[in-house]
Design brief:
about 525 residues; alpha/beta; ABC transporter transmembrane region fold; Rossmann fold
Length: about 525
């Protein structure tokens, strides 16, 4: 009875200690894994933001967000699986081997040999399943990206009454994901079937051997009972090991699919120990540059010098290279040959953030965050005061319509500014440029979304904004270029005319004169 009491007390005591160890690991894991998630999300987002404009142009933003989530969730779930499923199972097998071996070495040898073969087989199955897990994760990311793209353009879907077509379009990607998941599941079921056969053989071998040894009086009935318990527990845990490995493969596939896309090499980077741009006068020199995009030659031996403080207008038909030139100045892309300098400094040799801080850019398609108007204007100068934000809005002719909004400067603008009109969004962008107060100003169709009355009202503000700055203005509406010091006409990536507006308008058969004469309501006709 003393032996019975010993084990009767030891069993709940061991259970109590085991539970406390498990809870300790739970509290530790909670703290560690939540910290890991926060760190991983932050670092992956930071790395993702350093990719080039071309990288984002070729991908869905919703899909990229999904890839970050896949990478973090995959690594976290895989870590949990290893720490709280595979590691305890491995230690448990060692414990069972020890008990069986001390009872009879032959029983221990059976567990050692069989568990080794079983684990190796399941690892091999897991490696074979991994590509299918990757395919499932890739299909899911693509589907999410397509859904986000459709929802982002839901107004267009409604306007063209194409809801049924869009549903069918999304359904093709839903079906692709379903087929990928079905294939993975089908293979996983085969793994479970094979595991069931292997475990059945293990049960017969272990129980049969223990009964035989009992008949030979080598072990007692207690060892037989222990072997039955060990076999039952191992069978329960190992039967679903294939499924556990399948899940681990799925998590690995999620992490790999996300990380492979996010952790691509950055194409626009700072050189080691790059200095900041030292701005003095604002001379821009573009010297014999070659640039090719998607196998299309945009510039070949192109040169252009813009003296400090000069205001030039870039004119040309769509596709001539005007906006591309602005992107090259901002280093959204790098030229293949030649050099672009600001005050004699090669823009590829200075810090990228210092270069872009020196340039205020007002694009044709204004991007706004789903934040307040105040936050969107202040984005160019986070340290600006409330008064400075409102002053910039007044200069950009935006204060009047903002004051008529329910929450004024605290009004949320919606995703990409959908709650505002095109003209209102452009006024916000112009106000943002005023607040940035950068020495170089690039205007890319900055007034294209304004009506004639609003454009006339904002011209004075733009004239004020352009004072004592080097300005590049891209426009189809030639009336916006009247006050430019110089007009540069670009065709097929080459300068075909260069001079002040008056001179070019007097030039017989001139390209700029031809554009001016064929202008209708301020727009160039692309013939």
């Amino acid at each position: 009875m003393s032996t019975v009491w010993f084990w009767a007390i030891l069993f709940p005591g061991a259970f109590f200690i085991a539970q406390k160890l498990w809870r300790s690991s739970g509290f530790t894991g909670m703290r560690w894994l939540t910290g890991f998630r926060a760190t991983a999300y932050q670092l992956l987002f930071e790395y993702l933001t350093l990719h080039s404009k071309d990288y984002f142009n070729s991908r869905f933003s919703g899909s990229l967000a999904s890839k970050i989530s896949n990478a973090v969730d995959g690594i976290e779930n895989l870590t949990e699986k290893v720490l709280w499923r595979f590691l305890p199972l491995f230690l448990g097998i060692l414990w069972y081997i020890f008990y069986s071996w001390t009872s009879d070495a032959r029983l221990g040898v059976i567990i050692v040999v069989w568990s080794t073969l079983f684990l190796c087989a399941n690892v091999w199955f897991g490696m074979k399943l991994q590509p299918y897990s990757y395919a499932v994760a890739a299909a899911a990311s693509t589907l999410k990206g397509k859904i986000v793209d459709a929802l982002s353009n839901i107004s267009l879907v409604h306007e063209y009454a194409y809801i049924a077509g869009e549903r069918n379009y999304i359904k093709t990607y839903v079906d692709k994901q379903r087929r990928a998941e079905a294939t993975q599941w089908w293979l996983s079921e085969w793994v479970l079937l094979i595991n069931g056969i292997l475990i059945s053989g293990f049960m017969m071998l272990m129980i049969g051997t223990s009964v035989y040894l009992y008949q030979q009086h080598t072990i007692n009935i207690g060892v037989v009972v222990m072997i039955v318990v060990i076999v039952a527990d191992l069978s329960r845990q190992l039967f679903f090991l294939g499924q556990e490995i399948r899940d681990a493969g799925k998590f690995f596939g999620q992490a790999r699919e996300g990380l492979e896309e996010i952790l691509r090499k950055h194409t626009i980077v700072d050189i080691p120990d790059a200095p900041s741009l030292m701005f003095s006068r604002g001379v821009i020199a573009i010297d014999l540059i070659d640039f090719e995009y998607e196998n299309t030659k945009v510039f070949a031996n192109f040169s252009l010098t813009i003296p400090a403080g000069q205001k030039i207008g870039l004119v040309g038909k769509s596709g001539a290279g005007k906006t591309t030139l602005a992107s090259l100045l901002l280093r959204h892309f790098d030229v293949q040959n030649g050099v672009i300098t600001i005050d004699g400094q090669n823009i590829t040799q200075v810090r990228l953030d210092s270069l872009r801080r020196a340039i205020a850019f007002v694009p044709q398609d204004t991007s706004l965050f789903h934040r307040s108007i105040k936050d969107n204007i202040r984005y160019s100068n986070p340290d600006a005061t409330e008064e400075e934000v409102e002053h910039a809005a007044a200069l950009g002719q935006a204060d009047e319509f903002i004051q008529n909004l329910p929450d004024k400067y605290d009004t949320l603008v919606g995703e990409r500014g959908v709650k505002l009109s095109g003209g209102q969004r452009q006024r916000i962008a112009i106000a943002r440029a005023f607040l940035k107060n950068a020495p170089i100003l690039i205007l890319d169709e900055a007034t294209s979304s304004l009506d004639s009355e609003s454009e006339h009202a904002i011209q004075k503000s733009l004239e004020e904004l352009m004072k004592q700055r080097t300005v590049i203005a891209i426009a189809h509406r030639l009336s916006t270029l009247k006050k430019m010091d110089r007009i540069v006409v670009i065709a097929d990536g080459k300068i075909v005319e260069d001079g002040n507006p008056e001179e070019l308008l007097k030039k017989p058969n001139g390209v700029f004169k031809h554009m001016w004469e064929h202008q209708v309501k301020g727009f160039i006709i692309d013939e």
